[in-house]
């Protein structure tokens, strides 16, 4: 049994579909159209999500954290609550039940800030966002994804000792409803003007294939890693940093 958050749309829906095609049973978690309907932007919702999954499967073969919102949503704190706390609290809440592996969907945006400069590292994100003006959504998104990647890396010893692997994928622009909403927002021109070396958007199915690989037995020595799946953007922008 594999739990997938954000299973109702985009990358999460593609992951759930690929896993079911491969013969796995999937517990989808989402706001709606899922086995467990819960709002990961609140503490109560996160507790309900964890409880709902454990009610259906006291032991899990895998966990995939896809639920997220983009930089365009009106309340930037919502971005941090869903993308960061909605990932990390579910990760920690389900860790005792996990027997296999977990993958969290971070983003290429995770590398746009250093952890030492990330207000989430000091718990000052609300104050920092109050001063951020028109860039608040963009900053909150980068901070939330940087914090998810750091949280995964910080868990590598404890999870490894328990025999549970944990990795992140960092997509660039992937053609999903989240990207379409971004294109329709004030960030649309910036998204359109950037072209990765592979000059197209990724597909949810391409990201799902990587996630399914990372969950599976052929990835048995991959732990604590972040995989860019971005058409070459990370190498283009940061050729000497890796
Ligand atoms: P999507 O909008 O198609 O799917 C996101 C899912 O998360 C939706 O089903 C939505 O209902 C769910 N969700 C949102 N808020 C929630 C909440 N409060 N509680 C429970 N579920 C909630 O978006 P997409 O593109 O599939 O995004 C999946 C992940 O990939 C997100 O974490 C996103 O940040 C990340 N990502 C997406 C990229 C893209 O270009 N599409 C690029 C890099 C990362």
TrEMBL record:
<dbReference type="InterPro" id="IPR002347">
    <property type="entry name" value="SDR_fam"/>
</dbReference>
<protein>
    <submittedName>
        <fullName>NAD(P)-dependent dehydrogenase (Short-subunit alcohol dehydrogenase family)</fullName>
    </submittedName>
</protein>
<dbReference type="InterPro" id="IPR036291">
    <property type="entry name" value="NAD(P)-bd_dom_sf"/>
</dbReference>
<dbReference type="Pfam" id="PF13561">
    <property type="entry name" value="adh_short_C2"/>
</dbReference>
